[in-house]
Amino acid sequence: MALSVPVAVLAPLAIGAPILGACLLLTVGRRVPRRLVDGTAVAVAALVLALDVLLLVRSAGDPAGHLATWIGGWGPGSPALGIALVADPFAAGAAVIAAALTVAALVYTWHYLDSAEAHFHALLLLFLAGMTGFVLSGDLFDMFVFFELMGAVAYALTGFRVEEPTSVQGALAFGVVNSFGAYVTLTGIGVLYAQTGQLGLAPLAVALQGRPPGAVVVGGFVLVVTGFCVKAALVPFHFWLDDAHAVAPTPVCVLFSGIMVELGLYGVFRVTTVVFGPVLPHADLQRTFLVLGTLTALLGAVLCFLQRHLKRLLAYSTIAHVGLFTIAFGTLDPAGTAGAALYVAGHAATKSALFLVAGSILDRYGSVDEIDLHGAGRRARVLPWLMLLGGFALAGLPPFGSGLGKAVSEEAVAEAGAPWAPALFVLVSAVTGAAVLRAACRIYFGLGSRPDKDTAPLDTKGSEEAEVKGLLKRVPATMLGPLVVLLAGGLVLGVLPGVPQAFAEAADHFLDRAGYLASAFGTAAAPAAPSPASGWTTSGVVLGLVSSALAALLALAALYRDRLPGPSAVGRRIGDAVVARLRGLHSGHIGDYITWLLVGVALLGALVGLPLLAG
Amino acid sequence: MSILHVYAYLVAGWLLLGGAFGIARSRNLIHAVVCLSIAQSGTYVLLIAIGYQSGASPPVFGGSTPPDVAAHSAVVDPVVQAMTLTDVVVAATVTALLLALAVQVAKRHGTLDPDELTSLRG
Description:
The structure holds 2 protein chains of 2 kinds.
Chain A: H1 7-28, H2 34-61, E1 67-70, E2 84-87, H3 89-109, H4 118-136, H5 140-158, H6 165-196, H7 201-208, H8 215-232, H9 239-247, H10 250-276, H11 282-306, H12 310-329, H13 334-365, H14 383-395, H15 401-415, H16 421-445, H17 477-495, H18 499-511, H19 513-520, H20 538-559, H21 569-585, H22 590-614
Antiparallel strand pairs in A: 1-2
Helix pairs in contact in A: 1-2, 1-4, 2-3, 2-4, 3-4, 3-10, 3-13, 3-17, 4-5, 4-10, 5-6, 5-10, 6-8, 6-9, 6-22, 7-10, 7-19, 8-10, 8-22, 9-12, 10-12, 10-13, 11-12, 11-16, 11-22, 12-13, 12-16, 13-14, 13-15, 13-17, 13-18, 14-16, 14-17, 15-16, 15-17, 15-20, 16-20
Chain B: H1 3-24, H2 29-51, H3 67-72, H4 78-109
Helix pairs in contact in B: 1-2, 2-4
């Protein structure tokens, strides 16, 4: 009976199996036919998916909600030498999303990337191993190692098409910025170790408990969280994301936007809840996340709407949504956490599907530039509707899972002390949805006045080499299949009646610090007190409909801008100047990005540290 | 804490920030990648300094060391040394990968100057 496999086998196997699969593909991949390589990779990813689902079911079924195991049998003791793997429904759920998206990406690759030899598949499997290890790890240094494994593989995947000039440039900037962030995290780990002599999350939490929030604790928090913030693309750590997404192959974008960026947030909030929650004042932490999240959401939404390069547009929309997730997780209460998790899951399905649409546009028409492709897809029959559906799902249309996540999140944030939050959620999701709707109307329906092709000569245009040899005559089933399944998954998430309850329970376990500590020390814990689940409410549905309608209106306004009464000359000049300044910041220059990263560290330090100094 | 100890922490911070400054002001991508390695060297120095005790021996005991001697002799912390080794491996991987990408940038763009790489804007 599969359910009786002990966690001591399940968790390490979920990390080890993709590594073994990658090694196998690297050694024999060149000598076997491509079909076999594709099949093996999909089979390994599906196996990991099954293991993760089993972990999820087991941890959700466990009364304490946490399942721990110690690598090599070095259990918790005195001195604590063991390295723990801890699976709770959140960690296992994130691993499930990662594995499911890897399967989708691999199926999509089946016909795709003709040049992709076995090492592309091997890299995707290694990436999966890094992500799974990162979420299951209960040890700060292990988190760093898996973070770097995930990072190094991601740089290689971004620059996979080494013949493309922009591809290698984007990958290099991604690598330098992310690795520097990781070293800042490592410095923070060193500082904490010097103070406490502990690396495990649970022993570290116990060692820091009861300390006054002094310079070392604040410094340790800021430094450790910096690397995760870089991965999560919070403003001003976000600059690498749009470049990397614009140049990476489509299946890789699916994994980046769908789960890797969100894992950065997972790192931030896992460390915050388990280690720093009782040490740093909650109000300061909440304010920090609210400020960072709001900045991120607004900047992402504005820049998303300004893009003509489809993948870049979707990348900025990811930044905007990560901002919203941060606001919701940042409430640090069960309702906000449950809403954010739902939103992340719904967003993963929707955004991945939209990236796959962008990929198929690239392979069918040879470009991802919305303006060059004006009316190019008039004869397509299925994809236009799927893209429109995806745009509305992004805007939060009920009953999509992303809509449900948005509804639960905005209510929770409003209750947690930011009554203006629903307006922000509606605005940001409507703007990002509108950008997608506008692109779909231009490309597939030829709507809107034909814009001047060289309106903004400094923009990144979407001229990119197609990823297949010659353009596709029609989109094959292996490309369409994952897309439809992902969109349907996003729909099911919002419709299935038990979903809000399951996410509320998972959020309780995630925030149950005592339960985490108990399981990581191998003792029994009292189950967490359950908090009420909230699903669709009238106001949630209404706000979802409002943001969808707003998205449609905004898209139409953008398409027929020349027929609308324009703003006054002064207003236009100010607007243009602001836009030019914002876009100028995203220069693609490594030096600028590192400078912003340091500014971000200072900002984090100020947000957390200054109130403590004042109080 | 001795002067030597404080000095090691200062060197660690200097290397990390100096590396960041080098990347920010870099006019050549190879230089930027090397600056990244320098920043990482700061983490090696930090970790080793954390585990260091003056007068302690390396954490290595032969089979001939009597257990009571082993239990009472001061040794430096082996955990941070293991972490540093792991860190070195990570550094080797990342540096090699980034240098390979820099070579490819030079081939495709004909320049390594970040100021001249302007194809990813906005």
